[in-house]
TrEMBL record:
Organism encoding this protein: Zoarces viviparus
Keyword flag Signal: yes
Protein name as catalogued: Ig-like domain-containing protein
Segments passing through the bilayer: 235-257
Family, as annotated: Belongs to the immunoglobulin superfamily.
Length: 302
């Protein structure tokens, strides 16, 4: 009676999807989402919780952009990890120096022919952080008090995408100037995602050295500091430039009027080539062409 009851229990477990661990291969992992820093080691765990087969078939596949490729196949490392990875017991993959190209999904597959549940797999997502490079910074050399201007900062290598911070005279600018008693009257705004530092109205106090820092979970990098000068509005200079422009205009107008009076701009008429035959001498009358000679009308006076 015991055996039929055991069989009945097994059928009942199977009907509800519960199979005792001794009858099937079961996998688990410590982390399904794994982060690693570029050029540092990382281990992808594929732990076998239960198995009866002595020599199961273990395979690892890398899935990038929906396309799978072998990482571990026929008991050896394959693909672009061939010289950078190793299989560790029971079925873990150790990558010695992760690179940005290793960012992908990895699938661990274990086949156990002697188990009732003879196959299991587990999917792990690996993202490799990349340290930012030195950002490209753009700081205007000189601006005028009361005008608007923008300082720019950008780098495209870091992963995840960098967040940006700005420094003025070696002190970090707070996200909101109202949080600092020294900057409460400042009109700047910082976009940490794009790296822009905008001034709606530049103050004399905004002059100084500026540099930007790009940062993510892998590290940070900053550009060299650059000087921004702020000048007062030069009212006298603006007046002198305007007066000089008006003076030049009137001088040119007077010169043009004087030239017109002297006739410098009148066009000379073309000399027509009127080839008029000179009047015939009354002393000679030429005959018609068909006569071949001429007649004396009157005598020549010598």
């Amino acid at each position: 009676m015991a055996i039929p009851r055991l069989v009945a229990c097994l059928v009942l477990y199977a009907s509800f999807g519960h199979i005792p661990s001794s009858l099937g291969v079961i996998l688990r992992t410590t982390d399904k989402i794994v982060w690693a820093n570029e050029f540092e080691p990382i281990e992808l765990t594929c732990l076998i919780e239960s198995i009866s087969t002595n020599n199961p078939r273990i395979e690892w596949k890398k899935i990038k952009n929906g396309v799978p490729s072998y990482v571990y196949f026929l008991n050896r490392i394959a693909g672009d990890l061939e010289h950078r990875a190793q299989l560790r017991e029971p079925a873990n993959i150790m990558i010695f120096n992760a690179t940005r190209s290793d960012t992908a999904e990895y699938r661990c597959e274990v086949a156990a022919i002697d188990d009732q549940r003879d196959f299991d797999e587990i999917l792990i997502s690996l993202a490799v952080r990349v340290k930012p490079v030195v950002p490209r910074c753009s700081v205007p050399e000189a601006v005028t008090v009361g005008t608007s201007t923008e300082l720019r900062c950008l780098e495209n290598e870091g992963f995840p995408a960098s967040q940006y911070r700005w420094f003025h005279n070696s002190e970090e600018l707070p996200q909101d100037p109202k949080n600092s008693p020294k900057l409460v009257n400042s009109s700047y705004s910082i976009n940490p995602d794009t790296g822009g530092l905008k001034f709606r109205r530049v103050r004399k106090e905004d002059a100084g050295e500026y540099y930007c820092q790009a940062k993510n979970d892998a590290g940070h990098a900053q550009c060299p500091s650059q000087m921004m000068e702020v000048y007062d509005v030069d009212i006298l200079g603006i007046f002198l430039k305007s007066f000089g422009g008006v003076t030049v205009f009137f001088c040119l107008a007077a010169l043009i009027c004087h030239s017109f009076k002297r006739g410098c701009f009148y066009k000379k008429g073309h000399i027509e080539n009127n080839y008029n035959w000179p009047a015939q001498n009354d002393g000679v009358e030429y005959a018609d062409a068909d006569e071949g000679h001429f007649r004396h009308k009157s005598s020549f006076i010598i």
